[in-house]
Amino acid sequence: MERKILYIGAVVALAIVVAVVGLYLGQQTTQPTTPTPAQQTQTTPQPAQTTAQTPQSSPPQTSTQQPQASLPGCGEVSGQIVAGGATFPGPQYDAWIKQFSEITGGRVKITYNYLGSGAGQAGLIKGELAFAGSDLPLAPARFQEQRGKILQFPVVMGGILVVYNVPEVAYEKTGKRLNLTAEIIGDIYMGKIRYWDDPKIKAVNPALADRLPRQPITPVHRSDASGTTGWFTLFLTKAYPLWNQTVGWGLSVNWPVAQMGVSRAGQGNPGVAQLVLNTPYSIGYVEYNYWVTQRQKFDAVGGYALVQNGNDGKFYDPTPEAIAEAASEGLRQVAAKMGGFPSASDDWWQVVQLFAYPPRGYPIVGLSFAMIRTDYSGYPDPNTAAVVKCFFRYVLTEGQKHLVEGYLPLPPELAQVGLKAVG
């Protein structure tokens, strides 16, 4: 595999990733379609645990600075394009698009549709989208089919929260949040744990054990091919052997609870969030921003869970600090095993598996990727290629300083992968 970024560059990236987040923090103000066919489910051997020094960081907040109008090589670029895909980074793409429109004086119009990662990949391959957002890179078989036609590179990092609606133990009422392990979460989605007062749940929640009701659990999952599902099920695959052996991971999986008829399915992160909010005694998984923008509603009926990282045994509150710690550790694992980051024209599947379930920090974290074409001939707007390239030059430079709450910037060496791809 061609290495556009050598091992030493990756080590430097890991050494300064916290400094990057810290610099970003210092610039912030404090303030509280149709889905495509599912990707084949994957199974993953259980990883050996590794040790590394835990980095420290401060929580990122929503940016209030105005983006700088510095886009070398973009000049008077103009055009109108349609993109779409993952809902995980959707709020961040919305912010970037607004900022980019301001920088270009309104000459560029970009529409990003919340389709899900699978539909985004399919739309780009068919030539229906100018670029796709996908929380997982192309699976190996699809990558081989599209080699030389599609480039893929990370644009942002973030965490996935486990949210629940259990009024008896709502954070607003108790001031406490549930503790959950990978085994408990997996057993809920496999239908092995059916009630909120199950002994396994009580055992890790002694302060709330007497309040947990004898009510059936309604698991909520995605209805579309989803990168958020990919990272969530990859965590379960690596942290819970029985899940790995029976369910596996991917953009879509065969949910045992769906086959039992006891679950509900939502379109995109917004759909899952609303189903959990509106369904008493439910549980689901959403990207951080979909909780933080509705925190009062969630805390009134339930809240989010502290999830155990089985590598160190600790229950982690999904604070930005804990998510940043996990992301740093994940990148450290990639560097140690691969010697560097792939180029945008390479297969990123191994990176995803190494990044997931880090030895420390909040354990459900993920990268989000952009995918672009190498050839835009035949697109309605002849300026499509120029618009796409200029947009991602902004995203991977100035845009990394203007992030919505809940997202983390890339270290510079990782951002360089995409910058080299867009020229």
Automatic annotation (TrEMBL):
One of its GO terms (cellular component) is ATP-binding cassette (ABC) transporter complex. Residues 30-70 have a biased composition (Low complexity). Keywords: Membrane, Phosphate transport, Transmembrane, Transmembrane helix, Transport. GO terms for biological process: phosphate ion transmembrane transport. Residues 77-397 form the PBP domain. The chain crosses the membrane at residues 5-25. Pfam families: PBP_like_2 (PF12849). Gene3D superfamilies: Periplasmic binding protein-like II. InterPro entries: ABC_phos-bd_PstS, PBP_domain, Phosphate-bind_PstS. Belongs to the PstS family. This is Phosphate-binding protein.
